[in-house]
Amino acid sequence: MKSDSVQIYEDVLKQTLKRFPRDFWVNDENMNYKASAEITRYLIEEVLKWDDEKVKSDISCKVFFDHKLKGMLCTLFGDSVFAAIDNAYPGKYNEWELACTPRNFWNIENAKKATIWLFKEKLQWSDEKIKENISRKIFVENGLDTMMHVLFKNNARAAISNAFPDLFR
Description:
The protein is mainly α. It is built from eleven helices and no strands.
């Protein structure tokens, strides 16, 4: 059974309602985040029918805007696509997995987290395998090319040393 929020969203999409009711996103904060999570899941799973990989590669502000959710994204999440996605799917995605990483996201600490995640969680490489196969290409193939460019001037060894300081001693 659909929630009231999802039913309202369906009516907005079908244009039975011109837009969301006045103050829909600003009344009760807890209710707003619950409703936005339901609506975001409905958008991704029912309207777009996207799997995880499609979410990672294609989710953007434009997707929310094109599907009548600009007010939600702006009011509740300060235009942060990741915040909206994380609200709907808590902990399922990392910021760096989305094609639209938040502005000013990359810093040394986030790079360390992303690098550790890449090699230890996603690729599940041992320290030896990291040493033997380290290259910029691995980062690029896994969506971390902006991090490499912005923070490490495309130097894979510098990125690895940031995350695993004892690896090359």
